[in-house]
Amino acid sequence: MKTKTFPTPQDCEAAFYEALETNNLEAMMEVWAEDEEIVCVHPGGPRLAGYEQVRASWAAICASGQRLKVQITQPVITQSMMSSVHSVHETLSLASDPKASQTVVATNVYMRTANGWRMIVHHAAHAPELPRSSDTPMILH
Amino acid sequence: MKTKTFPTPQDCEAAFYEALETNNLEAMMEVWAEDEEIVCVHPGGPRLAGYEQVRASWAAICASGQRLKVQITQPVITQSMMSSVHSVHETLSLASDPKASQTVVATNVYMRTANGWRMIVHHAAHAPELPRSSDTPMILH
After folding, report:
1. How confident is the model at residue A135 (pLDDT cuts 50, 70, 90)?
2. Model confidence over B16-44: pLDDT tens digits?
3. Tell me, what's the pLDDT at A132?
4. Beta strands A83-94 and A68-79: pairing type?
5. Mutating which of B25, B72, B87 best tests the A interface, going by the most A Cβ atoms within 10 A?
6. d(CA B106, CA A115)
7. B83 and A80: CB-CB below 8 Å?
8. Could you give all domains of chain B from N- to C-terminal order, each with its CATH number?
9. How confident is the model at residue B140 (pLDDT cuts 50, 70, 90)?
């Protein structure tokens, strides 16, 4: 069913964020592996697992009509033969109001499949605007 | 410097949560790869990258003396030769008050190293208690 092939994890990631910016559901789902073990967590949201749940969430986001601009910074990448693990900061703003932005930290995991690289995890969470090293991290609030 | 070896990603994950429950910093840092590309995100916190930042955050947590109980449920795992990607729900409670609990969704990534399996990513975020499929996911709030 997949028609696109991504030769590298970076191609896959670029296509993911382009699909997000253009609200293109079909392009978004080309990026994902067609698998029951894919996982997507939107900021503040529940864990979604499997192709159907992940597709349904992106269908709702794309249908909302909210046009976003996404700037990716500070990538930290661990790549091996079959997988590539990316941590990035996403600076998200409305296309209609680029000055108001939010920062999201995202873990994106890609796997090499028989059909090129595909995304298997997107875990996004709101991040404090400016990390302060003096803060004591809390696990349980 | 590492003295423990974890033959499987599951051994590594078990050691991670045991170290968390026992506030054992040395055991916690045995779990992590000694690498500049490791990434840790505590719930609501900034992205920490590299061994020193990650160690400092766990040192603060272990020093807090807050004793947690952690129950792991609903694992979704994608394992390959060199990497293993785990999505889990953590039910966290205070050892002193087991009835009050919070749910965290965590993405844990392990890599096979020359010295057994090690953690390279722990990304944790507070999750809604009960995922509601009718909610429209929001990326920008």
Report:
1. low
2. 999 999 999 999 999 999 999 999 999 99
3. 54
4. antiparallel
5. B87
6. 28
7. yes
8. 9-126 (3.10.450.50)
9. confident
**Inter-chain touch A140–B107, beta carbons under 8 Å:** no
How far apart are the C-alpha atoms of A39 and A122, rounded to whole Å? 7
In Å, how far from its chain's centre is CA B63?
17
Q: Give the number of A-B residue pairs with CB atoms closer than 8 Å.
A: 185
Residues in chain B: 141
pLDDT 10s digits, B63-100: 998 999 999 999 999 999 999 999 999 999 998 888 88
Q: Would you call A61 and B109 a contact, using CB atoms and an 8 Å cutoff?
A: no
Kindly state whether B103 is in contact with chain A, defined as any CB-CB distance less than 8 angstroms. Answer: no
User: B2 near B34, Cβ under 8 Å?
Assistant: yes
Contacts of A39 in chain B (CB under 8 A): 76, 87, 107
Residue A9 has what pLDDT? Answer: 98
- Confidence (pLDDT) at B132: 53
Contact A82 B82 (CB under 8 A): yes
Question: For residue A129, what pLDDT is reported?
Answer: 67
How many whole angstroms separate alpha carbon B88 and alpha carbon B105?
Answer: 6
- Nearest beta carbon to residue B92 from set A60, A85, A139: A139
Strand partners, B75: none
Asked whether B17 and B88 are in contact (CB, 8 A), the reply is: no
SS3 B77: strand
To the nearest 5 percent, what fractions of chain A are helix, strand and coil?
25, 40, 35
* CA atoms within a 13 Å half-sphere pointing along the CA-CB vector of B127: 24
